[in-house]
Specification:
heterodimer, A: 371 residues, Rieske Iron-sulfur Protein, five-stranded antiparallel beta sheet, four-stranded antiparallel beta sheet, 5 helices, B: 272 residues, mainly alpha, 12 helices
């Protein structure tokens, strides 16, 4: 169907370079330079009818077959309708674009609700503008432009031999004229000047450091540091936390606003009946059935505090790792590789829960040197 | 029918059918997942011997088949209720969770089968066995003067991991789930924190103080009226649904657009 308009029938197409084993020079006749120099076109004016071919005119007989695209759609009535629809789309896009500017200038953004309204108006206006353009352009293409398939023969990618020879000659001339070869002092100092700049990006990688050292192995928990409730920052007596089935997030006293410290030190305490605690829970590290575990999942570090008081399971919301609270928070399901570290706790002279020491193993996910 | 027959080969007919089916599926889904009516809770009446006797009678009729005639519980079927307190009974019965239809991983909220007076009678009976947390008074659950900001911090630290950051609920293990908090009354939220129903941990008044509980209630009830950026809540369960809707929705329209732009139209022949 479209092949009739395509490359195959062009009489003046000539043998394409490469297809018949002929040298590429065939594609570069001397006539290339004498392309018809028509009247200069003014941008924005319609081109003369004979200029409406899309095919290259550099072939020796290209002028013999100027193939015209149809100037007008077949059904002028439909084309008129399509023109109006497309123009309407463009007008909508214009108005929406103006509306976008107006909304940006006019709508206040002093409160959350105002920002929501402003975003809605800006987004709607911008969407309408973009969609109006897109719909208009598509209607234009589909209904007004000719649906004719054309084939354009490809030019050889390599430059003509004469051009290549001329380039090589110019390069040689330039090399000689610049004295680059004759003056080794200049040449070597120039190369030396570029070397530090090549090395510089490698040195900048230093900003990825410093190495974490032992910081992954420690938290701010230490002997005698009180456990306080997250948010309300109250210290906790065992008698306050006496309802079996209780669970609460605790943080080290004095670090309530230190996010870097809390990222590792966040802990949950769970109240069980003392007889429910079993090996490998360290019973000396518990107080009257209250056991403290790191809140950081040992898989990838999500906060684990989905605690089911009926099953005593601690769940991680990210990948469903499940830890058994009465049995040392051992992993009973999911991708976590290690139990949650247990924080040794006791009570101080005032009867509040305090840490006996830091965690005895690194909290959180595995890392390379953890061992 | 003739109208349809005449137009079924129209170029836009295919798109129209797809759109109609999408609308039909959406409306069908909305009809099936209609929201239930929230249970009402009223102030607990004063306890009297008469009320306790009524409660015992109601308990024997409605609860004892699972919980035992002495509320002592039946192993592997139902927990003992001695010492759970009036608050636990009021929570379970006023949300329709109890009496349960049968043993299940999770007893979800359903229409209540006992009215408020009957519920308070059973609560009084259970409380008369061994005390336990009492039903909070309206002043205890009032959100006037409560801090939504503190409530949000407490909620995110202690509740959001199961109930989602705006109380949309979430899944637990073995069929259990943390229910959505969209229908819970302030009294029920307070009772749930106090008693830890089902798998929920207990947040007693000495760790999460009554003031903190009112802050949390203020946050939970406030999220229900907050606007949804973008206009749709999508269940308020976070970026997964939002991403899915954006992906599928955009994909659908992009496929439609691609079909429209590239479709052959009748004029190719005309120019040959």
């Amino acid at each position: 169907m479209s092949e009739t308009n395509g490359h195959g029938e062009l009489p003046g197409d000539g043998p394409r370079p490469g297809t018949h084993g002929e040298p590429a020079e065939q594609g570069y006749p001397a006539a290339a330079a004498e392309a018809p120099a028509g009247p200069r076109r003014v941008i924005g004016t319609p081109p003369p009818a004979q200029a409406r071919t899309l095919l290259g005119r550099d072939g020796p007989t290209a002028q013999a077959a100027p193939r015209e695209l149809p100037a007008d759609p077949s059904d002028l009535g439909k084309a008129k309708i399509a023109e109006r629809i497309a123009a309407t789309c463009f007008i909508i896009a214009t108005l929406a674009g103006i509306g976008f500017i107006a909304a940006y200038i006019g709508l206040p953004v002093h409160s959350v609700d105002a920002v929501l309204r402003s975003n809605l108006a800006l987004g709607t206006a911008l969407s309408l503008a973009m969609l109006g353009l897109a719909f208009g352009a598509t209607i234009w293409v589909r209904n007004l432009m000719p649906a004719v398939e054309l084939t354009e023969p490809r030019k050889p990618l390599a430059s003509a031999p004469a051009d290549r020879a001329a380039f090589a000659e110019t390069f040689e001339e330039g090399t000689d004229a610049s004295q680059f070869v004759k003056r080794p002092l200049l040449r070597r100092t120039l190369i030396a000047a570029t070397l530090p700049l090549v090395v510089a990006p490698v040195v900048l990688l230093r900003d990825m450091g410093p190495l974490p050292g032992t910081s992954l192995r420690h938290t701010v928990w230490r002997k005698g540091l009180r456990l306080i409730e997250d948010v309300s920052n109250m210290p906790i007596r065992p008698s306050d936390f006496s309802s079996p089935g209780g669970m609460i997030t605790v943080i080290p006293e004095g670090y309530a606003t230190d996010d870097d410290a809390l990222a590792k030190a966040a802990t949950i305490i769970i109240k069980l009946r003392p007889e429910e605690l079993q090996h490998p829970t360290v019973l000396n590290w518990t107080v009257d059935g209250i056991v403290a575990y790191s809140k950081i999942c040992t898989h990838v570090g999500c906060p684990v505090s989905l605690y089911e008081q009926t099953t005593h399971h601690i769940l991680c919301p990210c990948h469903q790792s499940t830890f058994d609270a009465p049995r040392g928070a051992q992993v009973i399901f999911g991708p976590a590789a290690r139990p949650l570290p247990q924080l040794p706790i006791t009570t101080d002279a005032d009867g509040y829960l305090v840490a006996q020491s830091d965690f005895h193993e690194p909290v959180g996910p595995s890392f390379w040197e953890r061992g | 029918m003739r109208w349809i027959t005449a137009r079924r080969r129209h170029p836009a007919a295919g798109y129209a059918v797809v759109l109609l089916m999408l609308v039909a599926i959406g409306m069908g889904y909305a009809a099936v997942t209609g929201t239930g009516s929230p249970a009402s809770a009223s102030a607990p009446a004063g306890t009297s011997q008469r009320q306790i006797a009524d409660g015992q009678s109601l308990f024997n009729k409605n609860c004892s088949s699972c919980h035992g005639l002495e509320a002592q519980g039946v192993s592997n079927i139902a927990p003992g209720l001695i010492g759970v307190g009036a608050a636990a009974v009021d929570f379970q019965v006023s949300t329709g969770r109890m009496p349960a239809k049968g043993p299940a991983a999770e007893n979800g909220r359903k229409p209540v089968s006992l009215n408020a007076a009957q519920t308070h009678a059973i609560a009084a009976y259970i409380a008369s066995l061994a005390g336990g947390p009492a039903i909070p008074a309206p002043a205890q659950v009032s959100t006037s003067g409560a801090s939504v900001a503190v409530g949000q911090q407490l909620f995110i630290a202690n509740c959001a991991q199961c109930h989602n950051f705006v109380g949309a609920g979430g899944a637990l293990t073995n069929g259990k789930y943390a229910p959505a908090l969209t229908q819970a009354t302030p009294t029920q939220i307070y009772e749930a924190m106090l008693t830890g129903p089902e798998a929920m941990p207990v947040f007693n008044d000495t760790t999460i103080t009554p003031q903190n509980k009112r802050d949390i209630i203020a946050y939970v009830t406030q999220t229900r009226s907050s606007t949804n950026p973008g206009g749709f809540s999508l269940g308020r369960i976070g970026p997964v649904t939002e991403g899915l809707v954006a992906f599928l929705g955009l994909l659908f329209f992009m496929v439609l657009a691609a079909m429209w732009i590239t479709a052959k139209h009748g004029k190719t022949e005309a120019h040959e």
